[in-house]
């Protein structure tokens, strides 16, 4: 496969890359891996896989390739398309690869913390890409440092790598099992040695990871949309507490933890995942449509038009319109070429930048009673700007509907969430939030309604809504807490 073999039209990234993230939970990371016994351009395939997962992290990107003897790494700060070009990919030759796109949830945003991370130890070389957060990273890291380990980064992923290196004499598979049993938290991990691709999912299945097949080659990735992008077939999701080992002999698995009930992150379905992904047998798009249906059942209102905030709330808005009989219209024009607002130099500029990204269509909202559907409200700053912009465009009423419950608690499992003091839902009652954002009415989907939209097939982590976490949560701390 050559760099140009897959057309960009088949690999469209989620528009949430450029969303107004001052009022959103920040993304996590995306991981991808492929192992082939045939002649295959694994670097280019990994590039396109990461391109499809770009919505999960935009700070840095990296790929490691194995030719059976040597692991070669290239990573840098920026988007996948900025970090790699044709010449770089042609220099990454091998039969297996892993890749990573990052949004920093532990450790600051700099090149030393970019992933995958590559290390050498007694068994050879090993590279790793990690999506998630370890809640006991501080304790384990201190114990390892007391035992003489030296850390090169301030990310919790390196804790896992050092644990594996310490148990190397037992063999790579036993070392991975022991390392996973020593850490707690959320993780979807891809690892690469000279001759093996390894995937691991945490015992609660908080972070997603799935298996695909590309001809005779196996693929691991965070979301099934990446499989569609490269033309691979979906095989199954990696089970909670499962280690998947792929080598020239094929694929096998090890269960390293007693079966614990699923606690998949519910926010994957609300906001993070691409709508064309299927996670643990649940269609992200269908769940958002159902959330819109349920939102109308719980919070109907008389109005003339329903609009959604691009892009993650479009499906929920369409569901609300479908259930209510109120026409759905595209109420905002989105500038696809504006960078992420949170990199602007000041809060004032950040907030004003929202109107640059989302411009209301006066022809749609002027003189109308508008239902504005968004996926969530975190800080409230963007919500207020959106309501104001609709009023300036001539809307006579603006009824705000959130397709998720009230976000009241931080996430400790791979999402860079505001402190509780910064969450508007933790500080104000619903009517007060309504006043703060300037809406005529405001309603949130209930937790029960969210579970209905997800089909209740399994358990979900609802910690950011109800404060109940599948793993004991640590004290609130800054994501740079492992910096020295």
What's this entry about, in short?
With 484 residues, this protein is α+β, with helices and mostly antiparallel strands. The chain has helices spanning 42-52, 80-83, 86-90, 137-146, 157-166, 172-182, 225-230, 267-272, 284-298, 314-324, 347-357, 362-365, 381-392, 424-427, 430-437, 447-454, 463-466; strands spanning 29-35, 60-66, 71-77, 96-102, 117-121, 124-134, 185-192, 197-201, 210-214, 217-221, 233-237, 242-247, 250-255, 264-265, 278-279, 282-283, 305-308, 332-334, 358-360, 369-374, 397-402, 441-444, 460-461. The chain folds into two domains: 8-260, Glutamine Phosphoribosylpyrophosphate, subunit 1, domain 1; 282-466, Rossmann fold, CATH 3.40.50.
Give the SSE map.
Layout: E1 29-35, H1 42-52, E2 60-66, E3 71-77, H2 80-83, H3 86-90, E4 96-102, E5 117-121, E6 124-134, H4 137-146, H5 157-166, H6 172-182, E7 185-192, E8 197-201, E9 210-214, E10 217-221, H7 225-230, E11 233-237, E12 242-247, E13 250-255, E14 264-265, H8 267-272, E15 278-279, E16 282-283, H9 284-298, E17 305-308, H10 314-324, E18 332-334, H11 347-357, E19 358-360, H12 362-365, E20 369-374, H13 381-392, E21 397-402, H14 424-427, H15 430-437, E22 441-444, H16 447-454, E23 460-461, H17 463-466
Parallel strand pairs: 14-23, 17-20, 20-21, 21-22
Antiparallel strand pairs: 1-4, 1-10, 2-3, 2-4, 5-6, 6-7, 7-8, 8-12, 9-10, 9-11, 12-13, 15-16, 18-19
Helix pairs in contact: 5-6, 9-10, 9-16, 11-13
Structure in words:
With 484 residues, the protein is an alpha+beta fold. It has 2 domains: 8-260, Glutamine Phosphoribosylpyrophosphate, subunit 1, domain 1; 282-466, Rossmann fold (3-Layer(aba) Sandwich). It has helices at residues 42-52, 80-83, 86-90, 137-146, 157-166, 172-182, 225-230, 267-272, 284-298, 314-324, 347-357, 362-365, 381-392, 424-427, 430-437, 447-454, 463-466; strands at 29-35, 60-66, 71-77, 96-102, 117-121, 124-134, 185-192, 197-201, 210-214, 217-221, 233-237, 242-247, 250-255, 264-265, 278-279, 282-283, 305-308, 332-334, 358-360, 369-374, 397-402, 441-444, 460-461. A 7-stranded antiparallel sheet has the order 3-2-4-1-10-9-11. The protein is elongated. It starts with 28 loop residues before the first strand and ends in an 18-residue tail after the last helix. 55% of the residues are buried. Mean pLDDT is 87; it is low at 1-22, 340-345 and 478-484.
């Amino acid at each position: 496969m050559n760099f140009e073999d897959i057309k960009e039209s088949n690999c469209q990234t989620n528009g949430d890359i450029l969303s107004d993230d001052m009022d959103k939970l920040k993304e996590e990371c995306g991981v991808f891996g492929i192992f082939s016994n045939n002649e295959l351009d694994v670097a280019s395939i990994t590039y396109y896989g990461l391109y499809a997962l770009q919505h999960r992290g935009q700070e840095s990107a990296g790929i490691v390739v194995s030719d059976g003897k040597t692991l070669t790494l290239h990573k840098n700060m920026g988007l996948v398309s900025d970090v790699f070009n044709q010449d770089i990919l042609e220099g990454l030759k091998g039969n297996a690869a892993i890749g990573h796109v990052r949004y920093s949830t532990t450790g600051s945003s700099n090149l030393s913390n970019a992933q995958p991370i590559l290390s050498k130890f007694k068994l050879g070389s090993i590279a790793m890409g990690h999506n998630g957060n370890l809640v006991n990273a501080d304790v384990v890291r201190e114990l390892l440092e007391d035992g003489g380990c030296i850390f090169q980064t301030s990310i919790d992923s390196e804790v896992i790598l050092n644990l594996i290196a310490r148990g190397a004499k037992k063999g790579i598979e036993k070392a991975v099992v022991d390392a996973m049993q020593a850490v707690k938290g959320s993780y979807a991990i891809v690892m690469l040695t000279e001759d093996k691709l390894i995937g691991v999912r945490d015992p609660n299945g908080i972070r997603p990871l799935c298996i695909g097949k590309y001809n005779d080659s196996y693929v691991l990735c965070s979301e099934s949309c990446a499989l569609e992008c490269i033309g691979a077939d979906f095989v199954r999701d990696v089970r909670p507490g499962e280690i998947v080992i792929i080598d020239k002999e094929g694929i096998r698995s090890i269960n390293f933890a007693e079966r614990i009930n699923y606690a998949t992150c519910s926010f994957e379905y609300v906001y993070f995942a691409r709508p064309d992904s299927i996670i643990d047998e649940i269609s992200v798009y269908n769940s958002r449509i159902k959330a819109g249906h349920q939102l109308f059942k719980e919070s109907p209102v008389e109005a003339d038009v329903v609009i959604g905030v691009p892009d993650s709330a479009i499906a929920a808005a369409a569901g609300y319109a479908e259930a209510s009989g109120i026409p759905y219209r595209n109420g905002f024009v989105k500038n696809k070429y504006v960078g992420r607002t949170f990199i602007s130099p000041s809060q004032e500029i950040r907030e004003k930048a929202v109107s640059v990204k989302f411009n209301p269509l006066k022809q749609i909202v002027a003189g109308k009673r508008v239902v504005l559907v968004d996926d969530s409200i975190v800080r409230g700053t963007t919500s207020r700007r959106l309501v104001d912009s609709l009023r300036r465009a001539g809307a006579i009423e603006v009824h705000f509907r959130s397709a998720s419950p009230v976000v009241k608690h931080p996430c400790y499992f791979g999402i860079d969430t505001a402190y509780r003091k910064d969450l508007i839902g933790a500080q104000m009652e619903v009517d007060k939030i309504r006043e703060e954002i300037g809406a005529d009415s405001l309603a949130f989907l209930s937790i029960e309604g969210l579970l209905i939209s997800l089909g209740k097939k399994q358990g979900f982590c609802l910690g950011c809504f109800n404060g109940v976490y599948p793993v004991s949560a640590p004290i609130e701390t800054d994501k740079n807490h492992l910096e020295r």
